[in-house]
Hints:
Residues 11-71 form the HTH tetR-type domain. Keywords: DNA-binding, Transcription, Transcription regulation. Residues 34-53 bind DNA. This is HTH tetR-type domain-containing protein. The protein is mainly alpha-helical. It folds into two domains: 9-54, Arc Repressor Mutant, subunit A, CATH 1.10.10; 63-192, Tetracycline Repressor, domain 2 (Orthogonal Bundle). The protein has nine helices and no strands. The chain has helices spanning 10-28, 35-42, 46-53, 56-75, 84-101, 103-110, 122-139, 149-169, 177-192. Helix 4 packs parallel to helix 7 and helix 7 crosses helix 8. The radius of gyration is 20 Å and the shape is elongated. 31% of the residues are buried.
Amino acid sequence: MTVARRRTASEQVSAALLSAAETVLDRGGAGAVTVRSVAREAGVAPMGVYNRFTNKDGLLAALALRAFDDLAAAIDVGSDTGSPADRLRRACQGYRRFALAHPARYALIFATGSPASDPASPVTTRGREVFTILVDMVAGLALRAGLDPVDAAQAMWNGQHGAVTLELAGVSQTSDAAASFTETIDALIRGLQT
């Protein structure tokens, strides 16, 4: 009797390869992500990676899309609990937690050379969608007269990104980075409101 061999669904193979790629990324940064290193981590032939992601750039773009999805989940605090300012504070804390827990993924989507730097990339489109979550939260605040929600959201992002980037680089000038981050977010929110 012959047993029919079951094939793994293509989506499952792609997801397994992306998980292997995340492991390589988390361990060594974007420079460590190669078709061969991911194939080795996944226990497949390099051709399996090429067949699903074309090349290293395709693999990095898929990783960046997944990182943006994870970031979106980290900052999405819902709309039914707390004041708009409280929700924004929680979202900013989620942003910080994501960056600190996954510094290589954070760098992949925000550092120089990111797949998100190509305006025509689906990664850039996903990044804009994630930014819209922040815009919607900021729009819920009682903004100063004449302050556009997109401009206000960009200011919030500039502040939180700068604080997190300094913390990740280990160049913060305060003894308590978490408290400093909270103070930064509170100051930004106060500055945006009426």
